[in-house]
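Explain this fold:

***
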Amino acid sequence: MRLFICTLLLKEYKFIKNMFLEVRAIVMPDKYREDKGKMSKDLSELVKKGESEEVEFKKSTAQLDRALKSVCGFLNHKGGKVYFGISKGKIDGQEVSEQTLKSISQKIRQRIKPETSPGIKVLEIGDKRIIEVIISEGGNKPYFLDGVCYKRVGTENIIISPEELERIIISKHEQEFDSKICKGASYEDIDLKAVKWFKRKYKEFSGKELQGSNIDILKSLDCVSIIDDKLKLTNAGILLFGKYPKKIFPRYYISIARYPGKDIGISYLEIMDIEGNLFELIDKADNYIRQHIETLYLLKEGQIAREPVSQYPDFVIRELIVNAVAHRDYSIKGSKILIKMFKDRIEFDSPGGFPGNVNEKNILEEQFSRNPLIVKALNRVKYIEEMGEGWNRIFREVQNYPLKFGRLPEIKGNSRVVATVSSPELEEKSFKEKAMKGLWHDYGTIMARFNKSQISSIEYVIKNKKITRLEYEKNYGISKRTAVRELKKIVNSGIFKVVGKGPGTYYTLAR
């Protein structure tokens, strides 16, 4: 089975930090302050009108748990606002700290599923502060608070009946996101170079020419439709062949974060945003990861030359990227695909839970395509294989790889799905390779550059801290002249440095 999407936002605190900066911009600097008089008047009128289908008042954040029902109800209805610091008919004010705002944001994301992030503002009315939580109508209904689905009716939050819940779910899946017409897009947004590339790629894999005009080809892929005699682009058309997909879908890209250790911590090596159409996202992310994983050189029995082996199987890396792109829930507009590279693993994290009847336990047997048009286009140019094959092949590739993996790839999901491939056990085959580790990234370079005695001397110095010319001659049975020449080459390479003069001279690591 090859269905899968990839969980977790990159550094939750980063989002919260940005939110705090926005809050400070509203509350503190003069140039960002709203007209207090107008704000006070508008808020006073709002209080007089009282709670409604789109407004909820809470005296303080001590009532946050009760307010979450309103948040869930607004998500499942038409959106709304929750105010902390207002009781019925009165502006009480609310103590505000970064921890207060963080608590509101975290509880909403933790307890309401699918995950959502509200807008939060701090308003100043005289010497009082009000917290305004802005909830837009949810784009991934139904939403559940602790497993219960609420909707807003008047000033109440009522539990949605099983019958209505079933209708919502059926309606949600009547038309997949990728087949819907893309609002605001026109044929001018299509990158004809991308269509030309697709035709060339198709011929490369199938040996056949795609017949017809560019529009004919896009129609065959359901990337365009004719509606009322007008050419309309589907979401799949923009995602697969758009000039600037991010212009229409700002969060539909991939972020790759590299960390120096096994946890996120407070520092990272690099965060790279990958943009473009879906084919470009896959290729660029694949190339980036390959450039930033290790290459080992294994010595096989009966061979002199060493064989380069990538830290992870090429197919596994590409397949997990393809799955993240092909099976993410594109109806979730406020999130992105995130790939996290750690010292001991890579995590492929994609928005949306498992689709249909698929889950982490039956993923090898069950099949369901959330984005059939995207999958069809990717399959035409062999970016994706037949449904049901990908995840099985991932396991086979790992089990048959030259390097030993302590754990098989794992997949878990809730509001997001994350697939994790753990690094193989990077135990080098000999002390020679252990000696080179940390000294030279590419073992093959050392093997090609130095002879046997020179390599052995490097190992010797790593173990014994230093070597003299006399030891070099004795250890490897060579003449003084040869020893001087070979040691000089290692020094010139930057691996050894000379310490002392005369009889006390010795060689040690330069770094």
The radius of gyration is 30 Å. The domain at 34-173 is CATH 3.30.950.30 (Methyltransferase, Cobalt-precorrin-4 Transmethylase; Domain 2).
